[in-house]
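Chapter summary example.
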Amino acid sequence: MSVAMQTSSSQAKAWKMYIDGEWVEASGGKTYRVPNPATEELLAPAPDASREDMRRAIAAARRAFDEGPWPRSTPQDRARVLRAIADAMEARKEEMRELLIAEAGACYVSHDTQVEWPIRHLRNYADLALSFPFEQMLPRSTTDTPMGSWLNNSMVHNAPVGVCGLIPTWNFPVFVIAQKIGPALATGNTMVIKPSPYGPLINLWLAEVIEEAADLPRGVINWVTGQGAEISQELVSNPAVDKISFTGSIAIGSQILAAAAPRLRRVHLELGGKSAHILLDGQNLDMVAPGLTSPAFFHSGQGCAMGTRVLVPRAIEEQAIEKMAGFVGNRDIVKIGNPADPSVLMGPVIREERRRAIEGYIESGVKDGARLITGGKRPAGLDTGYFLEPTIFAGVKNHFKIAQEEIFGPVVAITAYDDLDEAVRIANDSDYGLAAMITGTDQIQAVEVAKRLRTGSVWINNAGNMSHGPFGGFKLSGIGREGGMWGMHEYCEIQHIAWKS
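The structure predicted for these 501 residues follows.
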């Protein structure tokens, strides 16, 4: 579908928020502009909620948890709902794809993550709803007293945590929210979702899919969109909210943690990353160069776990640089443009303010003395849209700003190392600890190196299990885990129940 058709169909939609089982406008009918990042055209106005709108949504979720049937529903009921949502998303997948292209700038190369994985996640959580140990009997013990003896029986009950405030990010919006609503629903919680102001429309589309597909009681799931900080502040500080799950920046995550402290509210934070990608040897450089350079083009580098620091053996440094630069510089392969074109590999960054921030990092790399190998500019002929060239720096010292701070744009920094001990030291010399990548022909060696890295995930030769494995970070990259049974535990309180017989 053409961009013009996408824009037209989006403009025809009167988007509303979903609160307490009803579609509602923001207070006073306020809206804000949501542009297509590739064309800068208006997609549609999104509801711009007030603090009072957020309070209504929180109150609805509180009633639904305290008085409604959902927290006492059976695992079979919850699995059925999750499967119905996944089936409905599958049936309307092309609508989802169209909106992700237009609102998130999602090129087709990213659609397995953007489109397919969220459906897989929800089906996996439906299965987990049936297999998760909500109740576990503990070994019996005997109590002997002068008055008699009795058997002590006890069990652990994994109870729903309560009202959950869910704050997803904009770069992989459906993927991220599926990792929150999936376990939250599977464990019997109610929730209020506050999307990023950069990605409201795809969230409201998902709200529509869920409302039509699942017979959820009123107030179980609520969506509130807006660009003002006050609605997020209300969600993270309101005493009726039991848990916050946030995906985004360290700065906002720290504010959420501080707001949660007075009531010791449960918090899950999936924050930033400055992941190292360690190349172990020079075998098959032509084959591995695309993977090494992928943060310079895949979703325009807008991913928290991307390997933006590439560590290469010093003996093959120049060969690696040549192969990496040659790949991203080939415009027949790394075609830059509108993601509505399936042949485009690299689209825009999300907003003009983000592009300016990334350009500031590029300037700092040059100023610090890194070698700008390729890119660093706005592409010629793309005067509309928030585009940047894929950018590679070499000769990067690990104390440089471009090696220490998350850029969240199409910039890769190459650093040479002399031995594996030095590679591990460089990789771990970071305030972040979200993920790491290792590429090499010796898998035993790669696993041993992986165990030395202080990161929540390590992916060797592009392997990964995003459906069943845990995802989250060490250090400033976050608190807690999403994915599989670990994601389920994040939405439970542990209750010990004992009785005698």
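To summarize the output: The two ends are 68 Å apart (CA to CA).
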